[in-house]
Amino acid sequence: MSIMSLSLNIASFSIKINVNRDKNKNIETLDKVIEKEKIYNDSIDNIERAKAAFYNMNMLQ
Asked: Strands, E, within the chain: which ranges?
C-alpha cells in the first residue's frame, strides 16, 4: 500500500469518525446532521477521485 493510498484511507476513516460522533449528539438539529452528511459524502467522493487519479498516475508510469 502506498503512502498516498494510506493517507487517503486515514482521511476517509477520520471523516467517518467525525460524522458518526456528530450523529450521536442528540442536541444536533436534523438540518445540521444532513448538512454534515452531505459534506461527508462530498469528502468521500473527493477521496475516491484522488485515489483514482493516483492509480491512473501509477498506471501511466
From this structure: none
**30 class by beta-carbon count within 10 Å (0-12 exposed, 13-18 middle, 19+ buried):** exposed
One digit per residue, pLDDT tens: the chain, 61 residues?
A: 566 666 666 666 666 666 666 566 655 677 787 888 898 889 889 889 988 888 888 776 5
Rounded Cα distance, 46 and 13, in Å:
14
Q: How many CB atoms lie within 10 A of CB 44?
A: 15
Total H helices, total E strands in the chain: 2, 0
- Residue found under cell 476513516: 13
